[in-house]
Design goal:
Number of strands: 10
Strand order of the largest sheet: 1-5-6-4-3-2
Structural class: alpha+beta
Largest sheet: 6 strands, mixed
């Protein structure tokens, strides 16, 4: 098996004279080129036959098998393939069909030559994963951020898949910026996709290493103080970079005054730690539900809601782009599996109508858990699916007040967005000429999000619990959403002068406020738009947003 490496230089047209042919001749001659390449390729050593103990689940059960990434980024797995594609292999095959510079280059692209490898072969799964850092030519003493470079071992049907995954990451970043990594597709010097690089997500530990415990549900302070008071304290502690990992559970961090009881109540490290855990799970799982994540397995999520690996999000759109095995084509077709219903929204994360392939409250599919347990003594068995005891724990989240509060916060945040926002995010990562069956990929993804926003909005507006949430918490939550979108805008505002096209990424906060008022009006919750414009917190953000828009013009 050939390992994927980040090399200083990839094959060029000078090194491969046949690449100088025109595209038509390249396509017509592709069969002969492949035959010549294989004929001249050094013979690979044939793998030794496996004994029964070494058989993996993809061979024995025809199911997926995912190996954990011990360095914090879990990856999707498919071992049931006979060959692998190193960077050079995939480049060779992609060059057969794309020998010219694309018509458009997304803003968020990087050439892989800007990175250097730190640690390789981090996964034995469907993906080849390496830890990389950016090459530092300015300040060699400056600490460099670690990234994870991922490439499919087998070439996808279309290398647009790397673009699609990067766009999905941008969607998660919009709704859950602290619970998902940033990512971008990597190109070679010929502008061909060779993989995706994602920023290391601080504190991420997959549940295969640290699982959710029932003790995480205990928040003593909730008996005395409001969720929004705990949230304000948590935000303050986050800004101060408080690390709770080495603080004893009983240590008092602060006091919160309860107006209802007219006294101060202590907030312990355990209270705040568990609050962060349940809040994070609400953010991560609700966002995964919104974006049709089909691969929410134990290696891709943490016990506090962080999540990685989004190449199977937006599954209704992404599915045709993936090179899949027989199990995937048989059981993972998206049709009818990502319904949005009031029942599922009420009971999140305990899904009954939607049926993602992997999900924390859903048992292992198609093979009884008891059988898998027995077979694991003789074969290497997939560790992806959540076990029955895990399912029970995650089902309890559906009634936890902190989970419910932040579930509705994320859902409100989603329905305050619109198709244009997702279209602009897509344009950051996807070439404008990318198509599938004569359909523009950017249109496919963005229109799909526009349709889902309408579906979610319709279900939520008919849900009494959501109306009650808006009556009690809506205005406070709106301020939080406006603050998050303001941070999003500020990130792009810094770059507008050098890259004017970033102007499209600035979210119109006035439109967000207007949409919120419209939603409340439909629910007969009386709101005056002018009240928000004079509210100190919101008015300040609207003023900053106006300055950004003026600057961009």
């Amino acid at each position: 098996m050939r390992s994927t490496q980040i090399e200083e230089k990839e094959p060029t047209r000078d090194m491969m004279p046949w690449l100088q042919q025109d595209t038509k001749n390249t396509i017509l001659g592709s069969t002969q080129i492949i035959e010549n390449y294989i004929r001249n390729e050094p013979k690979k050593q044939q793998p030794s036959s496996k004994n029964k103990k070494d058989l993996d689940e993809s061979e024995f059960f025809l199911l997926e098998d995912t190996s954990d990434n011990s360095n914090g980024n879990a990856v999707h797995s498919k071992k049931n393939h006979q060959s692998t594609c190193s960077i050079n292999d995939s480049l060779l095959k992609s060059m057969l069909f794309i020998s010219n510079k694309p018509l458009s280059i997304p803003l968020k692209h990087h050439c892989f030559s800007k990175y250097e490898s730190v640690e390789e072969n981090l996964s034995s799964s469907f993906h080849q994963v390496s830890k990389v850092i950016k090459k530092n030519t300015k300040n060699v003493n400056k600490p460099r951020t670690e990234y994870f470079f991922k490439q499919n071992r087998t070439c996808p049907i279309d290398n647009y898949m790397y673009e699609l995954e990067a766009a999905n990451c941008a969607f998660y970043q919009l709704l859950a910026p602290y619970h998902s990594p940033t990512a971008r597709a990597l190109y070679n010097e010929n502008y061909e996709y060779i993989g995706i690089v994602s920023k290391s997500l601080a504190g991420f530990q997959p549940t295969t290493k640290k699982s959710l415990q029932e003790s995480s549900f205990e928040i003593e302070a909730l008996k005395h103080v409001r969720i929004e008071d705990l949230d304000a304290l948590d935000e303050k502690m986050q800004e101060e970079n408080l690390d709770l990992s080495n603080i004893s559970d009983s240590q008092i961090l602060s006091y919160i005054f309860s107006e209802e009881k007219s006294q101060l109540f202590p907030i312990t490290a355990k209270d705040l730690r568990n609050y962060r855990t349940i809040k994070g799970l609400a953010i991560g799982l609700t966002t995964s539900y919104i974006f049709e994540e089909d691969d929410c397995h134990r290696g891709n999520v943490s016990a506090d809601g962080k999540r990685v690996d989004t190449d199977m999000s937006s599954w209704s759109v992404v599915f045709p782009f993936k090179q899949l095995g027989i199990i995937d084509w048989t059981f993972r077709k998206p049709a009818g599996r990502f319904k949005v219903t009031a029942r599922d929204i009420l009971n999140l994360p305990d899904l009954k109508d939607a049926s993602p392939f992997y999900w924390p409250t859903i048992p292992a599919r198609y093979i009884p858990e008891a059988f898998i347990s027995i077979a694991s003594k003789f074969f290497t068995i997939s560790n992806n699916a959540f076990k029955s005891q895990d399912n029970v724990i995650y089902q309890r989240l559906s009634t936890h007040p902190v989970f419910i509060y932040h579930k509705y916060t994320i859902l409100l945040k989603y329905i305050l967005t619109n198709e244009t926002i997702y279209r602009n995010l897509c344009k950051l990562h996807i070439r404008e000429e990318s198509t599938l069956e004569n359909k523009n990929v950017i249109n496919m993804l963005s229109q799909h999000q526009g349709e889902r926003i309408k579906i979610f909005k319709n279900e939520l507006l008919n849900l009494p619990d959501f109306k009650e949430f808006l009556i009690t918490n809506g205005d406070k939550v709106l301020k939080t959403i406006i603050k998050d979108f303001s941070k999003h805008n500020e990130q792009f505002a810094k770059k507008i002068n050098s890259k004017p096209l970033y102007q499209e990424q600035v979210i119109d906060l006035n439109h967000v406020v207007k949409e919120y008022v419209d939603i409340c009006t439909k629910l007969r919750i009386i709101k005056n738009p002018q009240d928000f414009k004079v509210d100190p917190d919101i008015a300040n953000k609207l003023g900053q947003n106006a300055s950004i828009l003026k600057k961009s013009l």
